[in-house]
Design a protein that fits this description.
Largest sheet: 4 strands, mixed
Order of helices and strands: EEHEHHEEHEEEEH
Radius of gyration: 38 Å
Strand content: 25-35%
Number of strands: 9
CATH topology of one domain: Ribosomal Protein L9, domain 2
Helix content: 25-40%
Structural class: alpha+beta
Strand order of the largest sheet: 4-9-8-6
Shape: elongated
CATH class of one domain: Alpha Beta
Length: 192
């Protein structure tokens, strides 16, 4: 099914893009939500005329996105969160926390245009991608740290001492069996 997007849809396309999607996704989600319209011949002609008339507005939007991207260059974030003793985060870090950290630094970025790769559930360094315009992407490095110092509890190592076996000197060890044999030989003739 071919659709014309009426607004940006993360992972699919940008406003006024013609995209191919599955029927169910288009009919059950995109069209009812007002995010897309069917790409009929007349709709495509209207789109072409609108794009021609809005070319200068699109160039202005791209210039604004590039200006925002320039202000975001060199920005790195530190996100504090609750962490278990093993270094695992309670919950996960999402684009909402990244948007809040950017807002704390004076950059108001909509959370919907911030993308993270995978689920962040551990302390460490990551990268968030901000989709400012279909041709302008900014990568923001951020670090997830604990809100409290991590104290790793280690159990004290118990060292068991090996039992001490006193070794008999070699000379005494050889004499002991010889003495037993001598006693046996002395007892044997007395029994006769």
């Amino acid at each position: 099914m071919k659709l014309i997007l009426k607004q940006d849809v993360l992972g699919l396309g940008y406003k006024d893009d013609v995209v191919e999607v599955r029927n169910g996704y288009g009919r059950n989600y995109l069209i009812p939500q007002g995010k897309a319209i069917l790409a009929t011949e007349s709709a495509l002609k209207v789109l072409a005329e609108d794009l021609r008339q809005r070319a200068h507005k699109i160039a202005k939007a791209k210039a604004e996105a590039e200006a925002i991207a320039a202000t975001l260059q060199g920005v790195s974030l530190v996100i504090e969160t609750k962490v278990s003793k093993t270094g695992t985060i309670y919950g996960s870090v999402t684009n909402i926390q990244v948007a809040k950290a950017l807002a704390d630094k004076g950059h108001n970025i909509d959370r919907k245009i911030i993308a993270l790769k995978g689920v962040i559930k551990e302390v460490g360094k990551y990268v968030a991608t901000i989709h400012l315009h279909k041709e302008v992407l900014v990568e923001i490095p951020f670090e997830v740290i604990s809100d409290e110092p991590i104290v790793v509890e280690q159990e004290p190592e118990v060292v068991e001492e090996a039992p001490v076996v006193e070794a008999a000197p070699a000379a005494e060890a050889e004499e002991a069996p010889a003495a037993v044999e001598a006693e046996e030989t002395t007892e044997a003739p007395a029994a006769e």
